[in-house]
Amino acid sequence: MTKVYAMGDQKVHALRGIDLEIAPGDFTAIMGPSGSGKSTLMNLIGALDQPTSGEMLIEGHSLSTMRPDDLADLRNRTLGFVFQQFNLLPRANALQNVKLPLRYARHEQIDADARARECLELVGLGDRMDHRPAQLSGGQQQRVAIARALAGRPRIILADEPTGALDTKTSTDIMELLVKLNATGITIILVTHEPEVAEFARRRIHFRDGLIESDERRAA
Amino acid sequence: MKFSVALASAIEALFANLLRSFLTMLGIIIGVASVMTMMAMGEGAKARIDEQISALGASTLTLRPGSMRRGGRSLGAGAAKPFTESDIAVLASLPYAQAVSGQLSKSVTAVSGQTNWSTSLTGTDAAYFEIHDWTPTEGRVFTDREVRTGAAVAVIGKSIVDNLFDGTDPLGQRIRVNNVPVSVIGVLSEKGQSSFGSDRDDVIFIPLGTARNRIIGAHRTTPKNVSRIEVMVADGYDLKEAQNKLGEYMRERRRIKAGADDDFMVFNIADFVRARSATQATMGVLLAFMAAVALFVGGVGVMNIMLVSVTERTREIGLRMALGARGSDIMVQFLAEAIVLCGTGGLIGVVLGFAGSWIAAKTGGWEMSISPQITLISLGAAVAVGLFFGYFPARRAARLNPIDALRYE
């Protein structure tokens, strides 16, 4: 795949041609300095963007042939996003935040309340459901965000610098949570520039200047 | 996303920024309140005009000497030959005339004891009270005999009682009208203000002959003159047709040559009121237009704030899209907010509109009439404004690129 952005009359080659396959159930860390193309790749995997050339497939389906509404449903049902800045709605409490993606779930009948509670229990925040983001610590907010990503029962979780705004201790807690989720069979794709965070992943891919520099797998 | 869910979160968003929401709604509130008041005023005024027309006698034709204009110049009524009592007699024998009354009027000073009062005197006959459907609350009106013999009797309006008698019973009392003594035999029921603003109860009626001979004085060349004649058209005759027939009859009687202009007028009082109400209707349309402009300006205010809101919440929109919201979900969310904003403004506006209509009805002196349709139209207009002016910001939100929206600072 390649991705070229037009910045004014200049062309920025964010991805210069990569070929990558991520197996279901894997835990992959994508690393590299800023500008190396890792966020671009994340957007492509997240069905938020389309490659300039090449093809992006999720579970065998080509994203380039899907309509915008189908892409939205894909993000809703197959993918879960975790962001560096948590991106919680400040006015809503933890439970309401976790329920947010279920509002957009079309094809299935879900007991949103029960599902959201279950997800919050899973991330260890069963006793903080009616707290607003401002009443929670950074680590707790990221847990809410992870619970939100889990609400749609996704098969893939995309975490973009999930520990970037957290201290070391909390980062470790969050990463242990992701490892736990991975153990239940969810594919996890993580973008980070912190080597100690990447240590939690089984596979580590280094990017540089829009190309894959190294692709290593931790010995089991 | 269900629309009810969107509505609930729209109401939440409205309360999250209460002051701003209220200021935005203000334009809609004023717009809806004025649309409603204008429509209620229009209906109230119309109802009052209908009532006035029936009070004036919807089936009464009035004859006056003189013409509206001749050779581009308007002539006073005095310039032409006046009508006479014999005209009244022959008109009364026409098949379509149910009652015919003649009148002479003058401004006079009435005195009772030490009290003076400037008022208007009308010399007329018993038919006048029949035509105007005006009955006495005390005493009686004059008999034909009193009219024939020129008795010194008077029937007075309520305002005369208030101003000359100050609580004492006027019946049987004497008043001097321009120094001519007459005795009060009846007090008429209260009619209130006319549509032209004059007090219809500030009047003294005495028999036609008495007024002409003793107070007003006869015309130089025409004895037994009257200044106007009223003809009440009998049931079953068309008013317009009777008006034409009466005109032709009077041309013949006054020997007007074919092709020459009339030297008299036949008109229906109701026409004047209708002409005036047409002016009021034009005013009403103008006011309604201004109210619509207010609503439009309010709508632009809503659009402005919705655009600000979309910009402020760009990251939130990006997040929602990343979580699986379709463009249409975002669209519905922002449309719902615009509709809630305008709908709430509309509700407050309706309440204010009720108050405004009540005040307008009090000042204008008519019954307050707010039909459910007016309320529904006003509310509907507010919601329509929300839909119309909310569409553009909502579409802008729905078309945001999720990546750019998520990164927006």
Structural description of this entry:
The complex is a heterodimer of chains A (220) and B (409). Chain A has seven helices and ten strands. By secondary structure, chain A is α/β, with parallel strands linked by helices. In chain A, a hairpin with a 2-residue loop joins strand 9 and strand 10. Helix content of chain B is 56%, strand content 18%. Chain B has helices at 3-16, 18-56, 85-92, 126-131, 144-149, 158-165, 208-216, 239-253, 269-312, 314-322, 327-364, 372-398, 402-407; strands at 60-65, 83-84, 97-112, 115-124, 136-139, 153-156, 174-177, 180-188, 203-207, 225-226, 228-233, 264-268. A six-stranded mixed barrel of chain B has the order 3-4-9-6-8-7. In chain B, strands 2-10 form a two-stranded antiparallel sheet. The longest helix of chain B has 44 residues, at 269-312. Chain B is elongated and about 105 Å long. Classes of the chains: A alpha/beta (220), B alpha+beta (409). Chains A and B meet through helix 2 and helix 3 of A and helix 1, helix 10, helix 11 and helix 13 of B.
